[in-house]
Write the structure tokens for this entry.
Amino acid sequence: MTRPQKNSMKNFERPLKRVDGVVENLRIEYASAGAEIRMDFFACSVDGVELRGAFHKVEFHDGDYMEFIVEPEGEFSTVHAARNPGTRMLWMPPHQVRGHAAQKLCDIRWSFLYPATAVVLVGISEFFVDPDFGTHAFSAELLFYSLVFFVTLAITVMIRLRFKGFARQTTEVLRAFGYEHPEMVDLWQLHKQAQKALAASTNTLPPLVTPWSYRYSDQQSKTTLSTGMTDDDRRKIFWYLKRKTSYTAWSREAEIFDRFADVFAKQVREQPIVAGSMFEANWTPFLSMVVKAQASYEQALDRLRQGDRTVFLQNSRGAMVDATILSEHWYVELINNGPRGDHTYSGKYVPAMEDLMREFVLAVADRGYLQPRMADTPAPEAWDSFWPALYAQLPLPAQLDDVPLPAGETVVRSGTEVPVFGIYEPHIQDGCMNYLLGGTPAPTLWETDGAGSTGNALSVNWRLIWEDRRYRDGTIPAEERLYFPLAAQAGIGCGFK
């Protein structure tokens, strides 16, 4: 591998271009551990383009969707910056921290702060060391401290001038990324703001980052990070996933099935045998199946309210899976007339049961996810043109919370085990967040063109955005009152008494 040309302090020789795509065949060729600044030299390919570059530490991986700013150099392109829109991290070469205008302001500030500090420190030292302090002639003192000030100023200016070329390069890189007013961007200040926002959203100290890497937010970048999905879309999807996987959503489904079971029991009590109906016109044998579904719902909800989400898994603890298999059977029978459409039912309460099953299936569409029976099933949510229509049907709050910044580095590849239940976001352009189930294989993701699925399932890296820790103390968050407003007003299926 040919070592990438070291950045000079001059502007780039060739126009910069942006290369976006999934990282493939990433290789860390060598690390300059003994140099003044340790650097990882790497090579990879993105959409068939061979890239080579160096950062203090390479922290992206094969399968990550990345945005690179490169300078074409024949057979390969030299990387001058990298950005991961999934993790909101930006990597720059050493000393490239600010646009040239922001750097000039910084230089002016420090060029006077350092000499002033030097004068103060010399004065303090003289006060403690010189027994004749304050007795010297004013002109002599003025000359001495002026000399200290201007010598320090000259040294500071000489040092700060070294960053002028780096700042010019930073401006060009940020312009290639699409920043507005790139010359005024101060990556270190934006990084501190993003770290502070992360701490506020997670109520924990944010993790430290390696030198020359920076956190950022979409609002700070002032640039579109994807071709379709916006920050507002991400906030709505995040709220939607929390609502869909809530205790309130599941208890709403169970409450409707309880009403169905009450009507079913009336049918058994008042008209157990109906002339002309199927299965010898006898409703009684099926009541035990309905009661078993009720019991499974009750057990699953009791455990979920204590934070036990294993009820969603396809195993012996999957009480919610058992409940849905039994309950959805009656939608198939009463609304679809059985798996083949040849089952017919009659009875005094059949119309009422059919109405409740239609209400039930609407609640099923509003609740969360169960472990698929087929292991290779892609994640259920993908970015397509149907989301705006869905937003219009949701009782979205007027003010939505921002999507929390990842508190750690929990990343899981499709096919490997998901460590915890929660909302994950794929490292791919316009990758849609999904709620993944702990202990199950991470799914693939449907590839979309913005309008719909292309039919291809992509293997991706999923990054944990939010770990689901709700209900561990037995309480339901107050925000769930807003998930289903009509049900909350009626006190139905919301868990609030």
About this structure: Residues 376-477 form one domain.
